[in-house]
Amino acid sequence: MYNNEVEGQAFSRVLIALMKGVVYQDVDTDIWQALLSLQARVRDYLAVLGLELLLDEAEGYAWLRTRPAPEEGEALPRLVVKRPLSFPVSLLLALLRRKLAEFDTSGEDTRLILTRDEVVDMVRLFLPAGVNEARIVDHIDTHLNKIIELGFVRRLRGQPHLIEVRRILNAFVNAQWLSEFDQHLATYRINVLGGSNTNGEQG
């Protein structure tokens, strides 16, 4: 009876952690180990709610997404609500994703650590000079905090000017996401920036 109660509490903690956001192996080891041992039960429970578990043991993260709508029958209401991202947040995600891809090919380390100034430089180099650039740079911490809230980066303890880019970004910002964002960016350049790119050439 005691073992069943302990397992039930662990199961509840795992579900609550997943519902709140991304679960990382290096952040909460106990929750992670419980998730691995209860994985089949967790998946069965989530399936009833129209959710599926995405778990990457190699990278050490897990998160939830809505299951694809069935070909027949009525789809369940969404439990995980999709929220549109602002342009600056989307831009930062795209730039960080590409930075992570470049970092992985270098083979230097397993953790991508960036300073706030490096993030600002990434944005400054990408956008043409002007009011839009200044606005994004002035609000860089607000946009970073949103990405931290989403679980894609985290500030290092005791070093708030440093951030670590988490590898779950690879799962969220895939090639299709980047392609769609590039299309939106091209439209933005034409309609708002007059078709110029970072080198002052016509886009």
Attribute tags:
6 strands; Arc Repressor Mutant, subunit A; 203 residues; 2 domains; alpha+beta; disordered C terminus; 54% helix; globular; three-stranded antiparallel β-sheet; single chain
Describe the fold and architecture.
The protein is built from nine helices and six strands, in the order αβααββαβαααββαα. The chain is of the alpha+beta class and 203 residues long. The protein folds into two domains: 2-66, Orthogonal Bundle (Arc Repressor Mutant, subunit A), CATH 1.10.10; 87-191, Arc Repressor Mutant, subunit A (Orthogonal Bundle), CATH 1.10.10. The strands form two sheets. It has a three-stranded antiparallel beta sheet with strand order 1-3-2. A three-stranded antiparallel beta sheet has the order 4-6-5. α1 (2-20) packs across α2 and α4 (87-106) crosses α7. The model is unreliable at 196-203 (pLDDT under 50).
- Which H/E pattern describes the elements? HEHHEEHEHHHEEHH
- Uncertain runs with pLDDT below 50, 5 residues or more? 196-203
> What is the number of domains?
2
CATH architecture of the largest domain: Orthogonal Bundle
Report how far apart the termini are: 68 Å
Helix content bin: 40-55%
**SS class:** alpha+beta
Strand order of the largest sheet: 1-3-2
- What is the total tally of β strands? 6
Question: What is the CATH fold-level name of the largest domain?
Answer: Arc Repressor Mutant, subunit A
Largest sheet: 3 strands, antiparallel
CATH class type of the largest domain: Mainly Alpha
Overall 3D geometry? globular
- The whole-angstrom Rg is 20 Å
